[in-house]
UniProtKB/TrEMBL annotation:
PROSITE patterns per record: HTH_CROC1 (PS50943)
Protein name: HTH cro/C1-type domain-containing protein
Record-annotated HTH cro/C1-type domain positions: 47-72
Lineage: Bacteria, Pseudomonadati, Pseudomonadota, Alphaproteobacteria, Hyphomicrobiales
UniProt xrefs under InterPro entries: Cro/C1-type_HTH, LexA-like, LexA/Signal_pep-like_sf, Peptidase_S24_S26A/B/C
Source organism (scientific name): Rhizobium johnstonii (strain DSM 114642 / LMG 32736 / 3841)
Length: 215
């Protein structure tokens, strides 16, 4: 009986998710995946009711579709009841690592209009870029394929904080700041990854404030 009730609740939650997506003006799951960069298979499984979703995903969906969290997750209240904090969605330019290195030059890139974008919910104030992580040098925090969000306005160094930096060749890298190490920008990996070999002076591109990966 409990299993039947759980299945019923999962299916009803999925119906509300479909309703929320349609009312937000998205024709289908593909439009959602393209807009927010979510994992297509995971989202489709949630919409179909094949897999259930918990409160973390419910918060993400409620904010993206601008519906009430309690309505979406539990079916209580109305979809358009105001939540305590309205969602803020930003389209963040997703650039390449080569372009990230160019941000440290004397005449940095200032026009991001031609770059694709990835949607991010509730980023703090700042000037943001997104990068897709390559390699395993930061896999304790950001496995390969993760998207990191970098605040170009935040260049203040703080121990153990995360940064994108570039050397004089324009090569950019993502590392953790360890002021007592040499060099002070170090990997955070489960593997034996050597620290970067910088050429010349190192410039702070920006501080990494969010890392996401879809499972």
């Amino acid at each position: 009986m409990l299993k039947d009730q759980e299945q019923f609740e999962r299916e009803e939650r999925a119906k509300r998710l479909v309703m929320a997506r349609k009312n937000a003006g998205f024709a289908g799951p593909k439009a959602i995946v393209d807009r927010f960069g979510w994992n297509a298979n995971v989202y489709k499984a949630h919409e179909s009711g094949r897999n259930g979703f918990g409160i973390a995903d419910a918060k993400k969906y409620a904010r993206a579709f601008k519906v009430n969290l309690n309505w979406l997750q539990f079916g209580t209240g109305n979809a358009l009841d105001p939540d305590e904090l309205p969602a803020s969605v930003a389209d963040v330019p997703k650039i390449s690592w080569v372009s990230a290195g160019q941000l440290s030059e004397q005449a940095p890139i200032t026009d991001f209009s031609e770059f694709p974008t990835v949607a991010a919910l509730d980023l703090p104030d700042g000037e943001w870029i997104a990068l897709e992580v390559e390699g395993n040098s930061m896999n304790k925090i950001s496995p390969p394929g993760s998207i990191i969000f970098v605040n170009l306005r935040d260049k203040r160094l703080a121990p153990n904080a995360l940064y994108v930096v570039a050397d004089e060749t324009g090569a950019a890298t993502y590392k953790r700041y360890r002021p007592n190490d040499d060099p002070p920008f170090q990997p955070a990996s489960y593997e034996d990854v050597p620290p970067p070999e910088f050429q010349g002076a190192v410039t702070i591109v920006g501080r990494v404030r969010r890392s996401i990966i879809e499972m």
